[in-house]
Structure formats: structure tokens, C-alpha cells
Design a protein that fits this description.
- With 382 residues, the chain is mostly helical.
- It contains 17 helices and no strands.
């Protein structure tokens, strides 16, 4: 039971301490009870600092962890490779422990760290692993990899391939940035293997081309945005993932303008024109100015001045994109004005919409008709 799990305290202490179980809300207790077989009590107790977010985050993580449509071995390979690439010691330990119980060996774990070009993989296993590298580096699965996956996978499995990498990248950003401590006796450490990725950034996208997964209109239902109609192909995943997006756009505790800074910036970094267009439009309604947009689009070294909170929001987004962790100085700058709940919402907003950008890019979701006036500036288009 959760009460029997002591919360280990690593050095340095976590930036956000786990919430003692005696202080959990009834809602968090209910979600934690469902999540208990998955483990990770320190993660659950940390998310409990923001109960509304926990209710959105944990069911989706449980789906990705053990219930997606992917074959179990492929699910494990994709998860492990993502956690290696994001260097999440906490999540790797727990997923690797489960992998060993599933029949993986220590040599298999090291091979995952060495990547898709390591000897010993079946061709399709190497392909699955390569999909993780391409999404982490480019927020996009290449044509060659997609076409090969499409031979064996159906549409729900293709969606779950993207979603697994995106979701675990988000949770890695949370665990790494908060410094969630490993519990006593937790599973294996990250393998001592030189860090390398088997992908490169291309910024090739499918805007104004044929989508890979076409939108699915539901009979008798009003036509909605292309992004919603596309991911209805996998309704279970769509429901649990959608709760995270709803949290970010409707329930997050951060200032709406700051939220749109985060979403437009991560959309830009992912070269997701759909997300950029959607959230520049929302940002304008929240008060985003031309100067704000110029700041969002600027490279970090060119942001010479501006509102310190806006600058910290952008720095946090850049650091999560590059390092899957918010740096100490940026965290301190954010913590000066943001509560623990707001800090969690910063991480969920960036990570959740990095994941959504991966989905949009790789599925080839086309721009909606109302986005024509909010497109990328010409220099960001291919």
C-alpha cells in the first residue's frame, strides 16, 4: 500500500517535496488507488501537490505504461528508449525493473541504451526504437520509418507509438526538473553507455500535403478541428490524453498569457505550424502583442530584455526541449513568482504540447481553415 512506502530523499532535495499521504485529497486517493499496481509512489505523491493535474496525468501514464494497443514488447522498448534519451533516472529505474520482470535481460537494457543500430535487434524492433529517436530530436517520424511501421501497425498503434514517446518525454521533464527521488530499492540505473541519438533534425513537415492519418468525422456530430477528428481513430487514448490538454487550456493555474507563451514557443521549437497557429490566435485574445510574439520567436541569445516572468517561461521551454530539465537558475526565477501548482503546470503545459506537436507533425494533421492568418512566418516554413 502507498502508506508503507517511505519517500526517499536524495541529495539535493527535490525542488517540490512529495505531499504526505495524510494530506491527499479524496480525488488523489482515488486516482492513486488505480495507479498503485504501476508503482512510483514518490511520483504520485509529488503530483498530489496539484490534485487537478494528477487526475489528468496519472490515468494517461497508466495507459501508456501498460494498456496501449502496442504489442507489450514494443511498448517496453519504446518506453525504455524514450527514458534513456530523456535521461530520466527515476522513470528508467521503474520501467527497467518492470522490463526485467517481463523477461528482458540486463544485456537488453544496455542494448536499448546503445540504440537502434546496436547488434541483436530484430529489424522491426530497431525500427520501433528509431521512432523514439526521431521524435525526440525532430518531433516527427521520418517517411522511411513511418512507412515501415505502417506495414505492421494499424492506426491506433501508430498513434500509440507517437503518444508513448510524447507522454514519457513530458513525464521525464517533470521528474527531472522537480528532482523526484528514487525510492529505496528502486530498479536499475541508467546504463553507463555514451549518450548518442540515431536521428537528426530535419524540420520536414507535411503541411499542405496529404495527411498520413486522415481526420475521422463522426456521423451526427458537428465537424470540429482537424486535430480532434484525427485522433478519434484511437478513442481510449484520445480520452485519457485529452484530459491533459483540457487541463492545460482550461484548468491550469498559470496566467493565460504565460500559458500561451509556453505553447507557442514549444510549437515553434517542434516546428508544429498547427500548434503555432492555434495558440497565436488564442494568445492574441489573451493580450499577446507583436513584441511578445517577436520575443517568443527569437533565439535565446537575442532576448536582451523584457518581462522577467515571460523570459523565464521561454527559457524553461527551451531547456525542456534541449535538456528535458529546467536549469537551476531558470527554476529559481520561476519559483520567485509561481506556486508549486503553477510550476507543475509549466512543466505539464510544455511537455503536454510537445507531445501534441509530435502527434500533429507525425500524423500530418492539416491546418484548419481559420488558421490562414496565423501561420508561421515564411522563414519557419519548409
Amino acid at each position: 500500500m502507498w502508506a508503507a512506502c517511505a519517500f526517499a530523499q536524495a541529495e539535493p532535495s527535490p525542488r517540490i517535496a512529495p505531499l504526505p499521504e495524510t494530506e491527499w485529497t479524496a480525488e488523489v486517493r482515488a486516482v492513486a488507488a488505480d495507479f498503485e499496481p504501476v508503482g512510483m509512489p514518490n511520483l504520485v505523491a509529488t503530483y498530489a501537490r496539484h490534485p487537478v493535474a494528477a487526475q489528468a496525468l496519472l490515468p494517461h501514464l497508466q495507459y501508456i505504461w501498460e494498456a496501449s494497443t502496442l504489442p507489450p514488447r514494443h511498448r517496453t522498448l519504446l518506453s525504455l528508449r524514450t527514458l534513456w534519451l530523456t535521461q530520466s533516472e527515476y522513470l528508467w529505474a521503474h520501467r527497467a525493473e518492470r522490463a526485467l520482470a517481463e523477461g528482458f535481460t540486463s544485456a537488453d537494457l544496455e542494448r536499448v541504451a546503445r540504440g537502434p543500430d546496436a547488434t541483436g535487434w530484430r529489424p522491426f524492433e530497431a525500427l520501433v526504437i528509431r521512432a523514439a529517436d526521431e521524435q525526440i530530436v525532430d518531433a516527427f517520424i521520418s517517411d522511411a520509418t513511418w512507412n515501415a511501421l505502417d506495414v505492421e501497425y494499424d492506426i491506433p498503434q501508430l498513434i500509440d507509438t507517437i503518444d508513448t514517446v510524447g507522454a514519457l518525454t513530458m513525464h521525464a521533464g517533470l521528474a527531472n526538473s522537480i528532482g523526484i527521488a528514487l525510492e529505496a530499492g528502486a530498479g536499475p540505473s541508467l546504463p553507463d553507455v555514451p549518450y548518442a541519438v540515431a536521428a537528426e533534425r530535419t524540420n520536414i513537415r507535411l503541411v499542405d500535403k496529404a495527411p498520413r492519418i486522415g481526420p475521422q468525422a463522426t456521423e451526427g456530430q458537428a465537424i470540429s478541428a482537424n486535430v480532434f477528428n484525427t485522433f478519434r481513430h484511437n478513442p481510449v487514448a484520445d480520452r485519457v490524453r485529452g484530459a491533459i490538454n483540457t487541463h492545460v487550456t482550461s484548468r491550469a493555474t498559470i496566467d493565460p498569457l504565460h500559458r500561451e507563451f509556453l505553447l507557442v514557443r514549444i510549437g515553434t521549437l517542434c516546428r508544429s505550424e498547427y500548434e503555432y497557429a492555434a495558440h497565436v490566435r488564442v494568445g492574441r485574445r489573451a493580450g499577446m502583442t507583436d513584441a511578445d510574439l517577436a520575443m517568443i520567436l527569437a533565439d535565446p541569445e537575442d532576448r536582451e530584455s523584457g518581462d522577467p516572468v515571460k523570459l523565464a517561461m521561454l527559457a524553461a521551454t527551451d531547456e525542456l526541449w534541449a535538456d528535458n530539465r529546467i536549469a537551476d537558475s531558470t527554476w529559481a526565477a520561476l519559483a520567485a513568482s509561481q506556486s508549486d501548482e503553477q510550476l507543475i503546470d509549466v512543466l505539464v503545459s510544455v511537455g503536454g504540447y510537445r507531445s501534441t506537436s509530435m502527434l500533429i507533425n507525425s500524423a500530418g494533421v492539416q491546418l484548419d481553415a481559420n488558421m490562414a492568418d496565423f501561420r508561421f512566418p515564411p522563414e519557419l516554413r519548409n
